[in-house]
Amino acid sequence: MQFGIFSVGDVTPDPTTGRTPTERERIKAMVAIALKAEEVGLDVFATGEHHNPPFVPSSPTTMLGYIAAKTEKLTLSTSTTLITTNDPVKIAEDFAMLQHLADGRVDLMMGRGNTGPVYPWFGQDIREGINLAVEHYALLHRLWREDVVDWEGKFRTPLQGFTSTPRPLDGVAPFVWHGSIRSPEIAELAAYFGDGFFHNNIFWPADHTKQMVELYRTRFAHHGHGTPEQAIVGLGGQVFMRKNSQDAVREFRPYFDNAPVYGHGPSLEDFTDQTPLTVGSPRQVIEKTLSFRDYAGDYQRQLFLMDHAGLPLKTVLEQIDLLGEEVVPVLRKEFAIGRPTDVPEAPTHESLLASAQETSSEGVTTA
């Protein structure tokens, strides 16, 4: 399995001090978090994409390209690439460029986004969100796999004899995850193309996540990509840790109570009881994360949200140290126990290239 960090890049006041970081400070903090993730042995750093305050990551490939130059092993991803409001031609070219610069250490997560006003800013209608996601991704899929594309659809101008540049590294497209919290149509889209499905797994109870993942697995098999157990699943998670669980609860409570998304709503205790949020000791984080397998099956990628709600950078880096030193080594060992041999590992550029070469050689042998 792969373990890592994902960030939404919010600029939020620290409720304990009242101080709000500048945009520059927040951007630099996200870079520091990515570098810390590699330092402690995590596998993935993923950034969101937003075009509205109070968020800063409007240009994911710019940030990931910078991080690529400062890392050696980290897989660079997105926690949302807005397939609805971005031009698929630009996505194809931007991420192929990033692939080359990062020597293949790139994948991305497609999402519709949950900020309604963004759609008209980019000339789209939120009421067409699902249709935009389906049409745009179908075009993107072709742009990475066909050297010359003729295409006509509803939401952008036609293409005639078009070649996106640069071509994907080694002729292998970046692996795509389709992220969704509540839309079965997106699970179906992921299953149809044989791509990965990532469930945010932060705000919703386990029974909802189970339904979404089971739908994707069933449809993955229906479309002939393998057994349901061989589908590629990723989950989010949200944690705050201290050595002593009481210290974790006491320190995190003001951040939770004032968080932009769930602040001034359910109590911390109710939220941790009803959702995957874990606030406590490293052992408690391990136990709850391992429980995800009970309803999602054996899966491939686990990402944690750790830098939201105004938490200062120093605290976030301490959290990542705990994650890398005390939590993830145990999770790697425990998740491997009883894992069927036919459950695939998380796709990487190397594994996708090897699969493509094997398929090519089989075709030559058959011919």
From TrEMBL:
InterPro entries: Bact_Lucif_Oxidored (IPR050766), LLM_FMN-dep_put (IPR023934), Luciferase-like_dom (IPR011251), Luciferase-like_sf (IPR036661). Keywords: Monooxygenase, Oxidoreductase. It comes from the Bacteria. Residues 9-20 have a biased composition (Low complexity). Residues 1-21, 340-367 are annotated as: Disordered. Residues 354-367 have a biased composition (Polar residues). Signal peptide: none annotated. Residues 1-294 form the Luciferase-like domain. This is LLM class flavin-dependent oxidoreductase. The lineage of its organism: Bacteria, Bacillati, Actinomycetota, Actinomycetes, Kitasatosporales.
